[in-house]
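User: Show me an example of a complex going from sequences to structure tokens.

Assistant: Sure. Here are the input components:
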Amino acid sequence: MLDTASPAAAKVAAPPPEAGATSARAPLIRREALAFALFAFFAIAPAIAQVGAEGYLLSLVIRAMIFAIAALSLDLILGYGALVSFGHAAFVGIGCYAVGILMAHSVSDLFVQLLATLLASALFALVTGAISLRTKGVYFIMITLAFGQMIYFLTTSLAAYGGDDGLTLPSRSAVFGTDVLENDLVFYYLVLACLVGVYALLRAIVGSRFGRVLRGTRENPVRMQAIGYDPYRYQLVAYVIAGMIAGLSGFLLANHIEFVSPAFISWQRSGELIIMVVLGGMGTLVGPIVGAMSFLFLEEILARITQDWKLIFGPLLVLVALFARGGILGFFRRKA
Amino acid sequence: MYTTLILVQTLNGLQFGIILFLIAAGLTLVFGVMDFINLAHGVQYMIGAYFAFAFTSWTGSFGLGLLLALPAALVFGLLLEALVFRHLYDKDHLEQVLATFGIILFLNQGVKVVWGSSPLFVPVPEFLQGSIVLFEGFFYPTYRLAIIGAGLGVAALLYVLVNYTRAGMLVRAGATNAKMVSALGVDIRRLFMIVFGFGAMLAGFAGAMVAPILSVEPGMGDNLLILAFVVIVIGGIGSIRGAFLAALIIGLVDTLGRTFAGDVLRLFMDPGAASTVGRAVAPMLIYILMAAVLFFRPAGLFPVKR
Amino acid sequence: MTRFTRTFAAATLGLLATTALTHAQSTDPMKVGVIVTLSGPAASLGEQARDGFQLAIDQLGGELGGVPVEVVVADDEQKPDVALTRVNGLIEREDVDVVVGPIFSNILQAIHKPVMDADRILISPNAGPSSYAGAECNPNFFVTSYQNDQVHEVMGRVAQDRGYERVFILVPNYQAGRDSAAGFKRHFEGEIVDEVYTQLGQLDFSAELARIAAMQPDALFTFMPGGMGVNLVRQYNQAGLKDRIPFLSAFTVDESTLPAQQDAAMGMFGAMTWAPDMDTPGNAEFVAAYIEKYGKVPGSYAMQAYDTAMLLDAAVEAAGGADDQEALLEAIRTADFQSLRGDFAFNNNQYPIQDFYLVDIGQREDGMYQTQIVEQVFDDYGDVYASECQMGG
């Protein structure tokens, strides 16, 4: 506690070593077995869903994939940069409202909306990140919360766009003027493609020199500075990337529900994203996907058993925190 | 008329700040001394209110109910500490967040199962009902004055405890450097337990005190928890003095902001726009304040020296 | 490859588990999905609706119009995206014929489209936003409560009739709050001395009360549902304002909040289409049965859900079953059932035409509190949006 680990500097333990025994030289399929398994599952889930209640299962899995994208983006800064953002839902909200507001003005083109989403979330991340990154640890948690709350209250006061009640979209985004996304299966595979793309992108970033510097600043910012890296710049870039990806997930969420609402931006939602990352296993990139899936699937399963499902879900989270170092992923890795 | 309004609002802001302080005091100590992020602190406030309800309906007197609610909140806090929190001190912050989030879910649902989801009623004690005329044309509810008085009393008591007792000295030392205190042969686990139980009791006390003016319902602590965190980071983590001042500032800014934001803006823009912008800005004020404070003083107003 | 296989299998099992608990495709000819808010601060409203609906089904012997019925309850958690998933579950997994719900307008915004797209019948037992009352009206969508504005219009009319000249408006800063202020002003022609919009979920009104006391209006109009209302009413009382400034409200003093307001609410006014003390056929029996089963006085949320079940009962009977959706819709439109409110008919936009009353608070013989009718304010009143709806006539 004498050096860097004052209470104000969040103590965020380094995640367990990556991918356990499999070395970096192992074939891609071995190294990424978990990710491939999850993607394979997502790819054939529509077929599994044929057993019954297809639309319901698809909409559940789509929601899981969208939250997985948001959780993945959080994992980049939280797991690899030890930057606990408690306002991450704001970026999801910016994505949602970029779609909603453009739709309200009859701009339904997917590419225009996507561009607006990415620009808006990048800009917001750049400004708030530049300010927030001056603080450390818990102070960083709280200042990101502050910015998240500002966006939340801003959207609740957008009376022209529904205020608290939210805004119903007339349709999904148009691709080259066609309504091809109205087909749920097409939309499903678009979301899956985004998830795989985001995963691959983040995997590449994490493995690059940039990712190593980011991890270095997590372990010891002073040392990184001493050997000539400016942690602030690296963290800011990571923050902006994470914000843009979260914005993308908001873009997809708005298209999925065809409805946008400030409820997506509340601090509880930011908290849930953190919970998903930690539950699955932070700093692993696979963990957030597992976390988002477990969180949403468990909620659905338990809610079917009893209306008091939180009485079961709450203690489960406590057990994971107590006995599964590194979340669900860490638990099974050690057993294996 | 306007002066009266400002005066009343100032008292209201103080009263809100005092409640925030009671919650934040425990939170900042637990955080500062034990380096433990306790999201479940808000539910301890809720539990205090429910205890006050249960004991008040059982004994028929709010005074007795309050007296019983305090030890009950203490025991409840110690129970949680022994069952769960004790095993989390060595974990990293995010695992603490995960576990205490689970406890929030469980307890919010738990009180709903036990007491139902409807808001509950706790009567204002007979002798504190009604309003007091502070001066001509200036009323203020007696019970709210009582809250301010009780809160100031507790703050003074805390001040004495922390500054003039051996336990208080250890707490201050722990907030500065827990490892060193432990190395000097102090039973740090016991110190943690005391701090934790005391913090839980303070939060419970706040909950019990507001039960007669606010509705007692599941989840009532969630939003206050966030405000309490705002208070402790503005004040500087581990600093009781900082928490006290920050709580009063937040209480005043929030209360006065809600009333006067529109009026102030009217000086710069036309009335319609002013009230629209005022409504949007008022709830953001405390967050803007926090962001500004952290921008200029990244460790809060009163950082604990290390 | 084992890790691959294991992960894949686990994910698949997890997904299947979310449907595994589906009751085996039953031979029941009719299924009704009830989606209401059962968690969070507003859970008690959803519970009333769920219980009121269930009470009617029990009294009808588990049948609607002679057809055995299965009721599936889902919790929307007051979150739009959760509501969407759950309502998809009701439609696809449970294959319900009719969806009854929700409580809140913003949840309705999220589930209206999927239910309409799936060509099922949606009956809202509470939320009645203007958005689906006008041009966006839909033959498959019914509201059995009221159009949201109407209740506030009652209070505007009352304030006008009593000759109040200066009124203070205090509502939460969200869409329903702003609509409520607009509804109040529709019939009130006096001066609005101030319009204060509080944060949604605000629990301490000391700041606003001080302002009201300073302004000395002839009356206060407010709309503070749930916990906000509990706090406002008690603090209004504690501040000594109740005897000085009349308290006109909507959804602020009702059976969902009275257990926590008790004496503090005596002498305050609300607006509704019904009250437990109303002398209509079956009403006394309904109130008694509800109290016996759930230990609480039913509020409008329970009454509207009960009426919804009775409406379905009559419609299924008239249509000779639930299989022919066109016939069922036609039968629902005639609304040929005995509402606990007395007069009840559907307008061309399929929102109700009914009477509205001023209510105040009374204590029952059993010690519990309830709303009671003071006077009728509107007779056979429809909403102002219906003329924009192109359906029927």
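The lines above are the inputs; the final block is the predicted structure for all three components together. Chain C touches chain B through 37 residues (CB under 8 Å).
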